[in-house]
Design brief:
This protein is mainly alpha-helical and 143 residues long. The protein is built from six helices and no strands. It is rod-shaped. The N and C termini lie far apart (106 Å). InterPro entries: ORF6C_dom.
């Protein structure tokens, strides 16, 4: 047991070679630098991915929700529409947002698309199907 301890402790089989020349020191530094650069590249890729897929904040979702309510209210006021029409407009606009941004709900919009979503809402017009349904309801109410 003592012989084995002496052999492995005092004379390890793998001795670390310490660089002695300037060339060896430079090669060691370059090797360490390359490893560091590879790790930084991986971190950069992960950060870009995180930034690209970051979702809007709850405050931003609130802003989008207010913009949706404002747009629906504006259309209802301009065209003197009732509650039935309001529901259809909410459904149409919500569906359009989900479809355009490929999300299950407004809270899943990506942060990079926040301004685009607001611009879309502000310029949105109801679909021709929704307009026709609203016209049918209005016609029925007038009868």
């Amino acid at each position: 047991m003592f012989d084995e301890l002496e052999e492995n402790y005092f004379n390890p089989k793998q001795q670390i070679k310490i660089p002695t020349s300037n060339r060896e020191l430079i090669l060691l530094a370059l090797e360490g630098n390359e490893e560091t650069n590879q790790r930084i590249d991986k971190i950069d890729e992960r950060l870009v991915d995180i930034e690209e897929n970051k979702l809007i904040t709850s405050e931003d979702k609130g802003t989008i929700d207010r913009a949706v309510r404002k747009k629906v209210y504006q259309i209802c006021k301009e065209q003197h529409l009732g509650q039935n029409a309001k529901g259809m407009l909410y459904q149409d606009l919500g569906s359009s947002i989900k479809q355009l941004f490929n999300v299950p709900n407004r809270g899943r919009i990506k942060d990079k698309d926040f301004r685009k979503a607001l611009n879309f809402i502000n310029s949105w017009e109801p679909s021709s199907v929704t307009k026709e349904r609203i016209n049918q309801i209005q016609t029925e109410l007038e009868m």
